[in-house]
Specification:
three-stranded antiparallel β-sheet; 3 strands; alpha+beta; elongated
């Protein structure tokens, strides 16, 4: 399963959101997400197989965290869209900062 397939499921995105603030044991994720332990474990396995999370064994607990380069593929995919919106927002800022924009706004008041 690739990154985007793994991210398609809302509960998996919720798990990643929980892991942004640090590593969590399965029990905490189960409690936070309000889902069953088998369901959370199944989704964690999928996220692990997609290299989005890593697991560390601590005695009898498994601690999950975001993988170091978890969202590199997503970031690369989003790059052109960021440029698209940055250009449009820059153009909007330029327009709003122009003297003509202020004059037009005052006529509508």
């Amino acid at each position: 399963m690739d990154t985007f397939e793994a991210l398609a499921e809302p509960i998996r995105r919720s798990i990643l959101t929980e892991l942004v603030s640090g590593e969590r044991p399965v029990g905490v994720l189960v409690e936070t997400l309000g889902a069953s332990q088998p369901l959370v474990s199944r989704h964690l396995r999928i996220l692990r197989d997609a290299h989005l999370v890593s697991v560390k064994v601590d005695a009898q607990r498994r601690l999950y965290s975001l993988a170091d380069d978890a969202l590199v593929d997503v970031d690369a995919w989003l790059a052109p869209y960021r440029r698209f919106w940055a250009e449009r927002l820059d153009a909007l800022e330029t327009y709003l900062d122009s003297p003509g924009a202020t004059k037009k706004e005052s006529n509508h008041a």
